[in-house]
Amino acid sequence: MHNKSIIRLSAGLRSGDFSSVELTRHYLQRIHRLDKGLNSFITVTEEQALAQAQTADKLLAAGEGGVLTGIPIAHKDIFCTQGVRTSCGSRMLDDFISPYDATVVERLAGAGVVMLGKTNMDEFAMGSSNETSYYGAVKNPWNRLKVPGGSSGGSAAAMAARLCAAATGTDTGGSIRQPAALCGITGIKPTYGRVSRYGMIAFASSLDQAGPMAASAEDAALMLQAMAGFDQRDSTSMQQQVPDYSGTLNDSLQGLKIGIPKEYFDAGLDTGVRQSVEQAIKVYTDMGAELREVTLPNTGLAVATYYVVAPAECSSNLSRFDGVRFGYRCKDPVDLEDLYKRSRAEGFGDEVKRRILIGAYVLSAGYYDAYYLKAQKLRHLISQDFKQAFDEVDVIMGPTSPTTAFAMGEKSEDPVSMYLSDVYTIATNMAGLPGISIPCAPVDGMPVGLQIIGNYFDEARLLNVAHQFQQQTQWHQQLPEEV
Ligand code: GLN
């Protein structure tokens, strides 16, 4: 059952081939059997899942519900879930039970999904390898000595091992697309403002965006349909109509103008990954698309700019974790200052502390102009690069990540080399643009992601362009051994 697409699972549920309770049990058994070796879940909500599945079965029996009714999914543990621990991968929130649901959780529940549990992630979504989680590293199902990518590494690994039918993720600098690439699944980061951030624990508020991680573009379209749309509880959510994402999946790509940014094929790109991506682009020209070289001249500045803007925002967002209102509190504080200091020193991990320190520094009176203000100006230039490119082309294509999954421990002591795994994804967050990663030919048995970047609110086109590739190729259907 776990090899089927959401549409086929939904048809199976509707025709009575299996019930949602049976399907949910099937996934729960897979989690019990396979997740010890992967560590992709932080919390499994077995009882609640079976209760939701029963409700779904009743709806289905009455001929009600929609295509997602009764489909078991997993949420990244950054989304608040009422009555269920929401840890954000941190000791700070190890015992935090959210009093409310995030909009994403609420909307998907409203669409009838069954929540299997909460997936592992880098602490507060800071990382590219899922090694910074308080709950331990997640392993890549394709090779357990390698990382799954991050920060949505739990969702990506769970999806690659088919421990759920789909999952949610968030992407601040690449955290949906990069783990999707490294685990061989499909992940889309929508336009900033397309999906509500309400109830999604904030890392860098001007960059964070939620999106689906799925087996295919077709499945991602169904998930995004339920997740997207205006929410008055998120002041940056956009009043933009949500198109029918599934309705345009089969549009022809004849004459599609694809921009190839030369900066995304630089010396830092692994040769095998380059070949795989070039071969994928060839599939598009065979379908009638046209290639144009475009230039994104400020690409080289994106990572440095991001590591000023994102830490600045995180140092502000994470100031709420003070040991007073919620979250971890140190034992026997002697006074208020001791309470603040030790609660934060003991509750946060090293990478989070590094970001808070950098953020406080770049925002400080003496350095604000030199770093933060400068970074905001560069952010504008990075957005302008894309604006000019999209005057010429419909989509931009390149690699998602410069390499395939790297070995555990390989980069954890060297933050800069870790930060560079997002060189091709970060600029789109700086500009607020949507991007999707889809599997193309593996290199040495490890998955590779093709990244497709679109213009603002052009998710329908990205899903269409991704789906057409998946109609021509089988890469997205390949599964790791033991799965
Ligand atoms: N890897 C990047 C970081 O560590 C991006 C993380 C993300 O997108 N959440 O900040």
Molecular structure report:
With 483 residues, the protein is α/β, with parallel strands linked by helices. It has a domain at 6-256 and 435-449 and 459-477: Amidase signature (AS) domain (Amidase signature (AS) enzymes, Alpha-Beta Complex), CATH 3.90.1300.10. It is built from 15 helices and eleven strands. It has an eleven-stranded mixed sheet, sandwiched between helices. α4 links the parallel β2 (72-76) and β3. α2 (20-34) packs antiparallel against α3, α9 (302-317) packs across α11 and α9 crosses α12. The longest helix has 25 residues, at 368-392. The radius of gyration is 21 Å and the shape is globular. 55% of the residues are buried. The model has no long low-confidence stretch (mean pLDDT 97). The site of glutamine has 13 residues, from loops.
| Beta-strand fraction estimate | 5-15%
Q: Which CATH class of one domain applies here?
A: Alpha Beta
Query: Can you give the mean pLDDT?
Result: 97
**Largest sheet, strands/sense/barrel:** 11 strands, mixed
Number of helices: 15
The CATH architecture of one domain can be given as Alpha-Beta Complex
Biggest sheet, spatial arrangement of strands: 1-3-2-4-6-5-10-11-9-7-8
Structural class: alpha/beta
CATH superfamily of one domain: Amidase signature (AS) domain
Instruction: Please count the beta strands (DSSP E, at least 2 residues each).
Output: 11
Q: Which molecules are bound in this entry?
A: glutamine
| Amount of helix | 25-40%
Radius of gyration from the alpha-carbon trace, in angstroms? 21 Å
Order of helical and strand elements? HHEHEHEHEHEEHEHEHHHHEHHEEH
End-to-end span in angstroms? 12 Å
CATH topology of one domain: Amidase signature (AS) enzymes
